[in-house]
């Protein structure tokens, strides 16, 4: 007999884990709704032609491919088979693959439904994605993404609102965060000014180490990446950038004045900061030039959220991009979006034990079952309790009292109702508070009033 | 440039469709919670060894198999490759497959987590399943199932509560339904009594046609299935079974008295009916001997729900089974469950136009954008409106009024707020009701009070 298991890198979610995950998804969902975002869903399987080539060569290898049903060998010669080239074979024997992220399916969706969509299109999407990555702690082959994007609008008001959304979500979670912001145009400007356009990643990586390794070592690292002395000299004020966001912007304005694109990025930053300053933000918002996520992809603002009280990577990220849909033949659709990392948020909430008690509680009230007579008496009564919206169970059989109370304990049911011969005669319900141990006889109206 | 599309038999869901689907899932979810069911989730991918052989030979062919990442040819000889046997190859080149239903993964879950589960285990699960069926109207390759089961309890109270759950779900939807109930033990008894144990499906199929083709033709059909004249004679009272559930039970009690198993089935029916009679049921509950779903699987009660006002197959079904987990080496786990057909319920709600208005409405209030000055004035104001829980948008740019109003129209936003120079000076908001066209100046407090 086989011992059952699940594929490595995948997970079952227990009732308690599901309650926690639903709390996370519902919170994110509610905040998206508050800002007018609407949900869409796309199929788990996309045509491989939609997915291939969108995530680089490495990404192509990480796609889960679905073997064609029926004759998967059709159109493949014996010679090709004997070549045993898994990649080539995969493309021929598989038409479909599991989605790798929510962005490419979203781009496909926008192009395919362009005539039904009202732009600007504010959509959110909460669905699993699959990657044939090597599983490791905190990295799974199936995990959820929670993306929100506004496409078809260049307005920076969208950036402002996305910052508000991130802020509101983490305020609701009770997670103290820093929202870091950068701008691709400023990074481009820096590279332009020092004449090292292709070294932008090396530069941000080195700058990021200033606190850890000190200025001399940062400069040494830049030298090892073959930046010229002149470039390194020009970089000094930028490496040493500190102070408030406004102070940082002032330095950038001065140092990067000669770069038109940098000035555009600075103006965008100022626009956003000007508005955020007048809004009640809970989180810190920090201009951080070392933020270099999605450099091939983002064209304006870049966001990243760090939890302040837990050592963990970024728990949310995003940015502005041009031409989301160009690869599918529809130009001119720019947008800006964010993605909440549900699995990491789950870890943070667990570590800080921040789940509200009522998000974890399922059944509110358990009726003990003493036998057929009591059962018959209780069924219509329980029906009334449920009609009042109280999540209620009747233990389905007359098991030993200890077993029934143990059931209430492990399910964390806060109240147990005991109705035996006496209670039936008196028309009362003996209500036990499982937390305090207190027990008192109540009428059904009083019982309903308790919740 | 490729024209994007999705695999046949799969669907994108638009914001409006998602709102409708969420209404369906949330309603089902809430009722499950009301009865103490807890949610679990299992991975989309299961090991093929978990899935294969569980759905018959036909089912094995309908499994979507996932090509092993890395070298999918390892362990396969050249000779085997040149055989081009897709089924054999699939099993060797694919370790994983997409789940085909929620029952087998649930059985696997129960066995794998037996030590963490408190029995009786009331779980529900709402997730997509995938089948490589030929797509046709109303049949998809990706669709959701909404299963609820109680395992580890033989008590018929569970059947009673599942009937209440089905009743409550369709009461909330406003769909008039008939809940049909049969019992596998009664069917076994009939077959036993007439000495034709293996013809039970033929018999139920023939009985089912009575209204359409008349008694003579039903008997003719039974003869064509090689039932003996004696057997057909003994079947007459059962074929002609009608009247109330109690009247039907009385006939069965008399005709099937010699069959111990039939009498057990009748007693189960009576137990359930006795209890349901004392409960406020909205739907009809009808004893229907022609119900023959899952005959290889169900061992007691069998349920099916039919919509009364729409021509469509069953929209929910279920029953009691023994030995859910025997195939995974854990015996003695019986249970009873139901499965709501979300896609068909979606069709019924659409046809009858039964969605509550507030289930479809997303954004409640749109602020028109006249330009940077107004935008800056509005952002903090809108922040207050949102803090009051009102789903609010600011149109992200100063587009033409017509375009902004069109946006509100297509998104079905019921209120539009207009704040220009005058309104800013007076500290008022011009609030337009998009349904009536009425427009009036209000303060922010008055505006918030409106919702």
TrEMBL record, chains A, B:
It comes from the Bacteria. GO terms for cellular component: cytoplasm. It catalyses: tRNA(His) + L-histidine + ATP = L-histidyl-tRNA(His) + AMP + diphosphate + H(+). It is found in: Cytoplasm. L-histidine binds at residues 101-103, 131, 145, 149, 293, 297-298. Residues 1-380 form the Aminoacyl-transfer RNA synthetases class-II family profile domain. Its EC number is 6.1.1.21. One of its GO terms (molecular function) is ATP binding. Keywords: Aminoacyl-tRNA synthetase, ATP-binding, Cytoplasm, Ligase, Nucleotide-binding, Protein biosynthesis. InterPro entries: aa-tRNA-synth_II (IPR006195), aa-tRNA-synth_II/BPL/LPL (IPR045864), Anticodon-bd (IPR004154), Anticodon-bd_dom_sf (IPR036621), His-tRNA-ligase (IPR015807), HisRS-like_core (IPR041715), HisRS/HisZ (IPR004516), HisRS_anticodon (IPR033656). GO terms for biological process: histidyl-tRNA aminoacylation. It holds the Pfam family HGTP_anticodon. NCBIfam families: hisS. Homodimer. Belongs to the class-II aminoacyl-tRNA synthetase family. This is Histidine--tRNA ligase.
